[in-house]
TrEMBL record:
The lineage of its organism: Eukaryota, Ichthyosporea, Ichthyophonida, Sphaeroforma. Residues 1-23 form the signal peptide. Keywords: Signal. It comes from Sphaeroforma arctica JP610. This is Uncharacterized protein. It comes from the Eukaryota.
Length: 136
């Protein structure tokens, strides 16, 4: 009898965990990002002082949104940046509400990151993906 209660408890915990994961997918979206661990192709070398990521959109209100995130950019040995080895990065908002007297710009997304793309590519360190504007 004790074993069956234990199994039921484990099943309930598993169901709750699955529900929590599905709920956390609200307000997520993909960004194109360069893999910071990738090696460069033939005729290219690593540009060590750059961080690189292609963002979908940007919005800026006093801070500039660079199109960079992961650590390594490739450049041709002649000096141009390569455009290889992109991957999808899933991004999740931690704070989607606007301040008092502001409203969400529904057609814009922006995100500020820590300087990390995790090895499992489940980066969820966004500070915001919605831009706010004053209500009119």
């Amino acid at each position: 009898m004790f074993a069956s209660r234990k199994i039921i408890l484990l099943l309930l915990v598993a169901i709750m965990a699955i529900a929590a994961v599905n709920a956390s997918r609200d307000n997520e979206y993909d960004l194109r990002c360069k893999d910071r661990n990738i090696s460069c192709g033939n005729g290219q070398e690593l540009e060590q002082n750059r961080k690189c990521c292609r963002y979908s959109n940007s919005c800026s209100n006093g801070w500039s949104q660079e199109k960079c995130l992961a650590s390594n950019c490739c450049k041709s040995k002649g000096g141009d940046n390569g455009d290889n080895d992109d991957f999808q990065l899933r991004c999740k908002d931690q704070d989607i509400d606007c301040g008092s007297g502001q409203t969400l710009m529904k057609n814009r997304k922006c995100c500020r990151y820590s300087d990390k793309c995790g090895g499992n590519w489940s980066q969820k360190k966004c500070l915001a993906s919605n831009c706010c504007e004053d209500k009119h």
